[in-house]
Amino acid sequence: MRTAMAVCAVAGLGCAALTALPAAAAQDSLTAQYRTSASGATADQVEPWLEVTNTGSTTVPLSRVTVRYYFHSDGAGVSYRFACSWAVKGCANVTGTFGTLANPTATADRYLEVGFTAGAGSLAPGQNTGDLQLRFYRADWQTLTQSDDYSFNGAQTAYANWPKLTVQDAGSVVYGTAPAGNDPTPPTTPPTTPPTSPGGSGDPSAPSLFDDFSYTTSSDPAVQQHGWTVKSGQGGPGVAGATWSPGDVTFVADGSNKVMNLRLTTDGTASGTKETELQTSARKFKNGTYAARVRFDDTPTGGPDGDHVNQTFFTFTPLNAPMDPNYSEQDFEYLPNGGWGETQNIMYETSWETYNPDPWNAVNTHGQQYGSLDGWHDLQITIDNSSITYYIDGQVVATHGEPYLPETPQWIDFNHWLIDLAGQTSNTTRSYDEQVDYVVFVKDQVLTPAQVSAKVAGYRAAGTAFTDTVPNP
Question: Could you say which residues form the signal peptide (predicted)?
């Protein structure tokens, strides 16, 4: 209380209000440290990096704590998006929302409020959150002005206390000074952790897609009838001049089951490279659970090894213009021989907000794991209104939040392609195989890996090789 009263007196706040702090916050003392990694008067993104320190004598649940960064918008109609680039507490446990001040000033009419889910844990006395590497930007990706922002300090490039931020504990200000007449009020709804679905295999009535890939060839009429497109011709991604080959998308026996085989063949030249891709025809997949059983291939069927191949399972929307704010993509990309600067086996889980192809500018975040994944693996992505979670063989390997959540419906895709010709210079023909046992999507349901397994087992027990009840948007 003594610290809170001292802050109140320095800030010129209404001290009478602080004498009524909630009992849970009565002995709590929190401070905010700030630095910026974008110090210019104008910038593509505002980058307020923060730490919150517990200087009190009691443990504070972070789900009770919020921090406000105050700024002057670039116009009444301009909207902004929040992103967490990295956080010691995990970006999935950090929230960011924008608000409008009741009493605008020359340096502030809006604020970014940073909060925490229960997953962020608590701060014991003397502890701090560690780095919160945050940023926000205009939704239209235009350059913004930050030199007139109340909470901005371009000279503060190392962490230090910064009283032009406010820290709230259970809705009451315990540190910092808000712009005149704009003291924060208690939040109406606290951050929540992502919802989960009930037990079993989820809601049996939820719209779902399931495909066991029991086709004869890629030209089987049922492939198209079931909503799939097999890519042909040329075009990205990968090596310019390579060809997408429908004939190399085959369906082969694996014991008593059939699996889809995506073969990549190359002789080390663009003209001698054949790649494969299968994609849904309809863009109708957004929040929910995506899962597939995929077999990755570290070595070719013959010839020298070492090509920079990319074996994938992903979902995405089209990029309608550079830095399209409605673009999104969630990828599993396995590079058995490295690539993109890596020299060993690596799996990436990448969530995309948007990008500019020329000049290249990618707005994404990723998880990664080194080591071989040769063989069969269960891959799963769940998406709700707060997070994207990636699983491999039932284990969470990456979690991403805003701004990477999809804005519009997406396609589901598998492709097997060559990143470049730098991995192996031999002109001996060699082939790599990526196989897919099944794919499943359950709309608006966040299923556990065990629930996905139960759902797939139910389809197979019923003799269902294909079903699609997901409505078009």
Answer: 1-25
